[in-house]
Amino acid sequence: MVDDSMLNRALLADMIGDSFRIIEAEDGKQAVAQLQKEGTGISLVLLDYVMPHMNGFDVLDLMNKNGWIKDIPVIMVSAESDAAYVERAYELGVTDFINRPYDVNIVRRRVMNTLMLYQKQRTLMGMVADQVYEREKSNNLMVYILSHIVEFRNGESGMHVLNVQAMTEMILTHLVRLTDQYELTPEDISLISMASSLHDIGKIAIPEEILNKPGRFTDEEFEVMKTHSAVGADMLDDLELYKDEKLVRVARDICRWHHERYDGRGYPDGLSGDEIPISAQVVALADVYDALTSQRVCKPPFSHEEALRMIRDGECGSFNPLILQCLTEVAEELKSRLNRGVTGREINVDTLHVTDFAADAEASSRTLELLDYERMKYHFFASMSNEVQFEYTAEPSIIVLSDWGDRKLGLPEIIMDPYSDEAFLSVFGQANIDKLNKMLRATTPESPTVNMEMEVNVDGESRWLHLIAQALWSDENPPAYLGSIGKFIDIDDQQAQLRDLQFKAYHDPLTEVVNGAFARKVITERLGEDHGAERSDDRFVMLVCDLDLFKQANDNYGHQFGDKVLQHFAHLLQESVRTTDVVARVGGDEFLVCMECPPDPRPLVARIHGSLEGEVDGFPLSVSMGVATTDDGVRDYDELFRQADMALYHMKRSGRGGYVFYDDLSEEERGSLFEGGHTALSGIDSDDDDQ
Fold first, then answer.
1. What region holds the Response regulatory domain (predicted)?
2. Among 30, 583, 619, 656, fewest CB within 10 Å belongs to which?
3. How many angstroms separate the CA atoms of 22 and 66, rounded?
């Protein structure tokens, strides 16, 4: 609600009612600040025109510039009624216009109509986006499963498909930065990367005795093996209903020509240079690199460095110099990512690059823009806040960690069957994983979220993570558990900082016993005065202690020595009581002790007082104590403290170096001690004769 008149804002608020949370802004600048902060959390803007600093049209200009006007409806509210003014407002994107003076029924109806319209629009956009995501995810998953079947028959790791896919994307992305020779959009790169998964689909037609032969091929066997590229292309050409789909066309090119070489010495057609589609050129290089660095039936794996050398030296055929340059420049990223799990594009929402999923092109573009923006924003904040995002599918059992997450935990980005993966279990621990699995499967579609804190092992060091996860359930009846999504948040440093801050907040920095404020809180809870706790069975005693002649320690030996005396005395107090008892510093040289006590607390108090007498480097310790108990039904902290303080005052006036129970003071003594309003903690230490 943006209006420089408080009265106008109040009138509109009353008319709308209390069903909404209303944010008020006095001018355009405040309105823009709130829009920047809240974003689409704002359901509607009621905007005045005439305002200081920035008027209503200026706000609308900024909303258009930032794209907010497409997602946040605006109703202009103003006394202006000039046609040109109203037309200008509509041109800038306002949804409706309300003139002053306001009519309550008109205001309510137009507000509700606008909100319902935009809610339906957002619901529709969400449904379309969900359908796009599910379709893209299903397509990727089917491509992955099909290519994985081929790799399985070939006796190779399913990671070959993922490695080729990831390396293809990395090199193509770097290639478009390096040169504009190849006109590749992000959508093209995504499509080629997905299609690369089908590069060896023709191997399904190769006899198994040749496909999995452990030694070198004979010339005849090699000729049979070489046919897989043309067979794969023919298989895709035979897809009558879909052969004109862009994905199929790209996959067909890759299948047929990913064994062509830049110098024309490849097969099956002997193409050279850029006669070979750039998609096939890049997949060819990715295929060779992964074949070199992977275990195969006929060879052990070469190292990353050796594989790069062999490719550069032409031992594996000739490649486009630009692509070789890209390989060199992404070599370090390859080493850290490939053969460790790659990107997980086949089931990751990050791969969504769809261009034609709805009839309304503007709405589609805006939806994708919002999806990409939210993804970028979420990943940025995740990395800044020590978050590791993950996706887990139950069938097949695969967990995908975010790109930043694998670097944080030292794990592959994709882990097949994590419940039996040694590296994964060494980080998270079998007990944690079993507990999490049980918690997720115990959720319901109506309540799918779980929270859990776990201690993990990262690079040999123990760290605490906070897990927030949501179980995914099918729409069947009964629903089936599909997997989960969520994030791990590193809270170890925060926990350590929090513990340190809490200690500093609750403890005296010199003596490290608790401070007076925290002591009051704890003792109040134990006395039960705030919670109506049972008060008849527990008995407490409070001691207020004062170091006699402490000023002499500072005056004669300096403040550092005085600090040493206080630290020593605090240590003695802690040693003389139980760890569950409260020991606090409540003044300069005044301390407090509160504990549960037996029916007769006098022997306990005598023992404590005796343990405090002694000396520090020749300086004698003399302690005066005032003692109060809850025997008279006192359950109020302030009253118990007042009684102990009064007893201490009496002890100090009587000669110091001992203790006095408040119960032992006569009514006359109690009355005379405080006629001047003094207590041991408020005035006695300033009296000359006490020093």
1. 1-115
2. 656
3. 22
